[in-house]
Amino acid sequence: MPSTDLARSGPPTQAGPPAPASAGAGGPVGDDTATVITRATRRRKKPLWVRALPWATTIALIAFVELLSRLGVFPEEVPSFTSVVGAALEVIPTPEFLESLWATLEQFAVGLAIGVVIGVALGVALGTIPLLYQLLHYVLDFMRFIPAVVYLPLLLLVMGARPGVAYILAAVGAVWPMLFQTYYGVVGIPQILKDTGRVFGLTNAQRLRHVVIPSVSPFLATGLRIAAAHALVVVVAVEIITTVIGLGRDIAVYSSNGIYPEMYALVGVVGILGLLINWGLESLERWQLHWHSSYREVTA
Amino acid sequence: MTAQTIGKRWSTGLGGVIVSLIVPVGILVVWWFGSLNTGSPFFPSLQSILETFAETWLSEKVVTDVLPSLGRMFAGFAIAVVVGVAVGVLFGRIRILAYAFNPVLQFFRALPATALIPVSIVLLGIGDTPKILLIAFVSVFPVLLNTIDGVRNIDPVVEDVVRSYRFDKAQRVRWVQLHAASPQVLAGMRVALSMAFVVMVVTEMLAATNGIGYVTLTAQQSFQISLMWSGLLLLGLLGIIINGLFVLVERRLLRWYVQDQED
Fold this sequence. Notes:
The structure holds 2 protein chains of 2 kinds.
Chain A: H1 2-8, H2 33-43, H3 48-70, H4 81-91, H5 95-128, H6 130-143, H7 152-159, H8 163-187, H9 191-199, H10 204-241, H11 247-256, H12 260-288
Helix pairs in contact in A: 4-12, 5-6, 5-8, 5-10, 5-11, 8-10, 10-11, 10-12, 11-12
Chain B: H1 13-34, H2 46-57, H3 61-93, H4 95-110, H5 116-124, H6 128-152, H7 156-164, H8 169-206, H9 212-221, H10 225-253, H11 255-262
Helix pairs in contact in B: 2-10, 3-4, 3-6, 3-8, 4-6, 5-6, 6-8, 8-9, 8-10, 9-10
Domain ABC transmembrane type-1 (chain B): 66-250
Transmembrane segments (chain B): 12-34, 73-92, 104-126, 132-148, 191-215, 227-249
Family (chain B): Belongs to the binding-protein-dependent transport system permease family.
C-alpha cells in the first residue's frame, strides 16, 4: 500500500518492482483518482516530506514558470505568475468582478437546479414505467449526444443574449447525466431488496425511504458531479461567445483588449471555482453516503 | 458497463421496436407537416431545412468546413490519447509522480475547458494549430487520470504471475498494464471525445474562418435561418455518429471485459 512504498521507492526513475495495486480500496471508477489518493493517504500517518510533496511540487512548478517568464523565455502574452496574482488581488475586490462572479454562480446554480430536477424526475419515470422507456429511448439516446452548446445559435436567435440563455443551456448540459444516472440507479435496484421490502410489508413511503433512495443515491451523487461540471463548462462558454454577463465574458474582454495578467487571473478564478464545486460535491457525497462501504462502481 | 443493455423493455422483439419507433416517427411527422406552411421566420419548415442541408453540407462545404472541423477535432483527440496514455502509464507505475503532481492535475481537470479558449487565441492566434492544441490539452486530462487509475488498480495476483513469467518491462506495459487498464482508458477517452467535440464547436464559434460551428453561428447572425438550422442538425448528427462509432469500437475492444462481467 502507498504509505511504505512511497517512502521507500526513492527517486522516481528507479521504479523497481511495482507496488501491489491498492486492491483493498475498491474505490470509485473513472475520473475519481483524487479521492482515491487522498483517502488512501489520509488513513495513515506519513512522514512530513511525503505529505508536503504535492505542495512542494506545485510550488516548484510555479517558481519554475515564474523564473522562465522573468528570464524572458515566454512571449510577452504570458505574464509572470506574480503579476497574475497581483492582478487577481487588484481585480477581485472590485464590484465589477463580484457582479460577474455572482452572475456566473447564479447562472450555474439555476441551470444546474433546473437540469437536476428535470433529470431526476424523468429518470425516475423512465425507470419505473418500462413502457415510457420503450417509447422514448430512441429519442433520448439520440438527444443525449448533442452537446448543449450546439443549441446556442438557436437560443440566441429566439431570446437574444440574455442570462436566460445560460440558464437553459446549463440545464440542458446537466439534464443528461442526471437523467441517465437516475435511470440506471432506479433500474439497478436489486430484485432481492425489493422482494425483501415487500415481504416485510413496507408501505410505499417506507419503500421509498428505505429501499429506493439508498440504492439510487450513489448514482445520483455521480450524476450530480458530472452535471455540475457540464453546467459550468456551458455557462462559461455562453458568457464567452455572447455578451451575457459573467466571468467568461470578462475573460474574453480582457483577452481581446490585451490585458493579459487580468485574463489569467480570471481563468485561475474560474478554475478554483471548478475545484471548489467539485470538492464541495465530493464532501457532500462522503457525508451523505458515509454508510456506503465504498462508492458504487458507476460508469458515466 | 454497456449502459444500453441494462434497459428494461416493456416488450422486446419486433413489436418492441415498433413501439419504440412511435415517438421518433411521430415527432418527425408532426415537425414536417406542422411546419409546412409556417410563416415564422425563426422556425422554417423542415422541408426547407432539409433542402438547405442537402445544398450546403453535401456540396463543397464538405471540403471547406466539415472536413477541417473534424480534422481538427480528431487531431487534437489523437494527441490527447497518445500523451494521456503514455504519461498515465508512467504516473500510474511511479506512484510518487502521480502523487506529487496531483494538485496540478486536479486544477486543470476542474478548470472549465471553455475558459481556456480566449487564452489559446491570445497565445496562438486563430489558425488550426491553436484549436488542435487546445482540444488536445482539454481532452488529455480525462484520458490521463483514468489511465493512472486503471494502471494503478491492477490485480496484484496478475502482477505476481507476470513477474514469475519474467515478462520484460515493455511486455508488461503492452500485455498487462494497458490491457488491464483499457476499460478505464476507454471510459476516459469517451469523456475526452465529447469534450473535444464541445471545444471544437466553441472555438469555431469564437475564432475561426471556417468550420461547422463558424458557419452555423454566422448564419444565425446574418439571419440565414434555414442554414443555421441545417448546421444545428449537422452538429447534432455528428455528435451522435461520432459517439455511436466510439461505442462500437469500445465494444469490439472490450469484448473480453464484457464477457468477463457476464460470467
